[in-house]
Amino acid sequence: MSASTVSFNPARWWPWGLWSIFSLGVLALFVAYPIGVLTWNALLDPQGRLSLGGFATVLTEAQYLEAIRNTIVLGIIVTCTSTLVGVPLAYVMARYDFPLKGVVAILPIVTIIIPEVIVGQSWLMMLGNNGLISNWLNDQGLAVPSFYGWSGMVFSMTLIYYTYVYLGTLAALRGFDGQLEEASLSLGASPFMTRLKVMLPTVAPAMMVNGLVVFTLVVGNFALSSLLGGQIPLLSVMTYSLFVSEMGNSPVLQSSLSVVMIAIVAIVLFFQKRVVERRQVQMTQGRAPAPVRAKSWQGVLLASLAVGVVALSLVPLVAVFAGAFTQARGPVMHWGKWSTQSIERALSLAPEPILNSLMFAASATVLGTALALMVSYLVVKKKSRLSGVLDYVVVLPLTISGTVLGIALVQSFNTGPLVLTGTAAIMIVCYMVRRLPFGVRNASSVLYNLPGSMEEASISLGVSPFKTFFKVVLPVMKTSMLSAAILMWATSISELSASIVVYSGGLETLPIAIYRLVDTGRLGLASAYGAVLVVLILVPVGLAAKFLKVNLFSVK
Fold it and tell me: Which one of 27, 171, 259, 439 is most buried, by most CB atoms within 10 A?
């Protein structure tokens, strides 16, 4: 072995090698280690001996098999309905012009920002057993089917998750070379067959990738599944129920069911990598067809349907503010009778969930943004074996649901040298880890276009690599850094599925409070908390977009 092979290069090691080790250590401690503990607990019996008894129970008993089957079926149905809504909406936005198109095109993004617990609460106020629309239809003598169960879950989830399909398909359509379409039409093909045989294969990979994203989100969904699922067994709800019932006892079943959930998502992601990537279509950059004015009856109809879908998906946003200022007694909302009692109680008599949400989300945003900036820089600009491992580990939270992540953190830090369970620290860690991949994605957006010559010029003038990062790279990353921070804030402060597992007395946040209040039928106070939560999300996003020119998403 030559001396050069084993030589140690301090300049290469400092500072990025140490920063890579530090970042890997943080992710290993709070992501890889909890998943390892969860998996290990699934392989033990109640006496602590190696056993597959937990998996045998989960995969043989009827209640668990039914939950697995229902979860997969729900994921497939919502993926299909979201695709049926998102793809036509993207086509209309890409090919037609109509009044207020710019507003309609951007509004679906709001559905991603609205917390799911608020969506469930709002639709229950409209279509629940004592809902505004339900009561009105009953007064008209029309029988209203129950909103609980499959219909409520599919309806509400579709109106949230179609946005993912919409955004991905819209980007693909705007990158489609219109000359291919023109060539097909010139050869005598009908417009319908041209879209079917030329356009569809081109945008199909984007549709499938985002459809699989929707499927994984549905599998891990807790808020809507719990609030609207009724008596339908689902993995996320059953896993949480097992966690509550096994608390203080052997965590075999909760761990086994959690590993099954991870396996389902892992199989889907494997399918995405092996199948979707093979269907990628390489296309030279061309001119996308220019949108045409919607004048024909078909165009007007499509534009009207697009506006209707977007308006329907924003009903929860309107309902939660109306409910916050409506007289309420338990689950009964006295619509048309206005009152500030609920909002006053939320702001003055019971502000603890608001203060907790602000503290936990702010801490997670600061720490998460700093870590996301470092990880993105190491992965994009300082490629090495360590950064390659870092790039893999940082996306692990995407493969597990919030409920599973919360259970893994509780099991890992309930005893031992580092006890976090029952403290505010575990809430902050939970938020930071859960949303870190999104922060890294946003922070990385500008780094791919940052020429390495800028850093090289600074270093050649005698500035250290560490100072170069702060003086040259960070100023260029300012916009993406703010975007990552705003996104982490918006998603952290609305987090429910993981936080409801790790929280303890005195640490209740707004989403947890809303969930508890809806579950007990106190819709007035739940609406007031919901209105406060929406304001805490939308105001920073709006201010950042207006004054700092920060865009979390783009439909351009």
Answer: 439
Q: Phi and psi (nearest 5°) for 293?
A: -70, 135
Position with higher pLDDT, 121 vs 284: 121
The neighbouring-strand residues paired with 328 are 333
Domain boundaries, the chain: 325-556
pLDDT for residue 282 is more than 60: no
Q: Which helix (H) or strand (E) holds 364?
A: helix 352-381
Q: Which own/partner pairs from 65-70 qualify as long-range (CB within 8 Å, at least 24 positions apart)?
A: 66/233, 67/233, 67/234, 67/235, 67/238, 67/257, 68/235, 68/260, 68/264, 70/232, 70/233, 70/234
Helices 116-127 & 523-547 angle (0-180, nearest 10): 130
- Give dist(CA 83, CA 95) in Å, integer: 18
The two structure tokens encoding residue 192: 């319908």
pLDDT of residue 1: 44
Handedness of CA 190, 191, 193, 197 (dihedral sign): positive
47 C-beta neighbours (distance < 10 Å), count: 7
428 closest CA partner among 508, 473, 365, 339 = 365
DSSP state of 347: I
| pLDDT > 60? residue 499 | yes
* Mean of pLDDT over the chain: 81
pLDDT of 2 reads: 45
**Token pair recorded at residue 203:** 């945008």
More confident residue, 218 or 250: 218
Q: How many residues make up the chain in this entry?
A: 556
Q: Assess whether pLDDT exceeds 60 at residue 483.
A: yes
Query: Is residue 238 very low, low, confident or very high in pLDDT (cuts 50, 70, 90)?
Result: very high
Per-residue exposure over 501-534, b if at least 16 CB sit within 10 Å of its own CB, e if not? bbbeeebbbbbbbbbebbeeebbbbbbbbbbbbb
φ, ψ (nearest 5 deg) of residue 43: -95, 10
SS3 content of the chain, % helix, strand, coil (to 5): 75, 5, 25
Question: What pLDDT digit, counting tens, does each position of 90-142 carry?
Answer: 888 887 787 777 777 778 877 877 888 889 988 988 888 888 888 888 888 88
The closest alpha carbon to 312, from 423, 158, 524, belongs to 158
Q: What is the pLDDT of residue 367?
A: 92
Residues 6+ apart with CB under 8 A from 117: 223, 227, 494, 496, 511, 514, 515, 518, 530
For tokens 């790039």, the residue is 391
Would the CA dihedral through 412, 417, 418, 420 be positive or negative? positive
Task: Return the CATH superfamily for domain 325-556.
Answer: MetI-like (1.10.3720.10)
Whether the bond between 15 and the residue before it is cis, its omega within 30 degrees of 0, is yes
Burial of 344 (0-12, 13-18, 19+ CB in 10 A): exposed
CA distance 511 to 222: 12
Res 551: pLDDT: 58
